[in-house]
Amino acid sequence: KKKITIAIDGFSSTGKSTIAKLLAKKYNYIYVDTGAMYRAVTYFGMKSKLVNKDGFKSESLILKLKDIKLTFKFNKILGFAEMFLNNINVEKEIRTLQVSQQVSKVAAIPEVRRKLVAEQQLMGVNGGIVMDGRDIGTVVFPDADLKLFMTASADKRATRRYKELIDNGDNVNFEEVLFNVQERDRIDSTREDSPLMKAEDAIEFDNSDMGIDEQFERICTLVDSKL
Ligand code: C5P
Asked: Nearest C-alpha to atom 3 of ligand 1 is from which residue?
């Protein structure tokens, strides 16, 4: 059977990674969470005091990019790959609200994008991959066999993200999570370099009111039609 490339883009917390993980499992594909890569670079910047609430030193961060080694290692127990920054597992650290509050600024830096996009394209050379992010169908894999674009109401998305953060032991309130979700979408959609947008040939899914099972079933039918 043909090993295809599946690109999933969309606004934050629209359930992209849930669908991507299910697809990877069913078709035995590699799943790549590109948001984790932008988050890891952001976390590196925060730790090195190059990124903070008041602004950031993009010049210094750009110079440090060559010292950032990102790797995914598959965790058999969890059933997905975890993000390693310079050989250290940062899976927990990169999911905090603090990182979410800085990541869109870092992801707007063209040099950061160039590095990560090149790495993502290398991971996809053999197909058999499902990748989620903001620019996968438009920039990383413009020739992907299947492109999905996920949306949902801001309220649904913030509720989902809030639950995840609370489950992770992050002490946040709903209002700041809602603000962050909307603020990230605003920055991601309006940045100059590869802004978040639906590729012309992407199929849109609004999952505000659709259950994950129904959605997954529909998407599998689409995948099967490409094999
Ligand atoms: O997917 P996730 O919400 O973890 O992504 C975090 C942030 O990383 C996004 O809000 C966006 O700023 C950035 N990102 C990006 N391009 C991608 C994936 C993520 O700019 N392909």
From this structure: 12
The answer to the question of residue 86 being in a domain is no
Looking at the CA of residue 108, tell me the nearest atom of ligand 1: 20
For residues 129 and 123, the answer to whether their CB atoms sit within 8 Å is: yes
Ligand 1 nearest atom to the CA of residue 135, by list position: 21
106 Cα nearest atom in ligand 1: 12
| 28 Cα: distance to centroid of ligand 1 (angstroms) | 24
Residue 14 placed within a domain:
yes
Position 83 in a domain:
no
Please write the tens of the pLDDT for every residue from 124-147. Answer: 999 999 999 999 999 999 999 999
ipTM more than 0.90?
yes
| Domain range enclosing 145 | 5-33+96-226
What total of structural domains would you count in the chain?
1
The predicted-structure confidence for 63-102, as pLDDT tens digits, reads as follows: 999 999 999 999 999 888 999 999 999 999 999 999 999 9
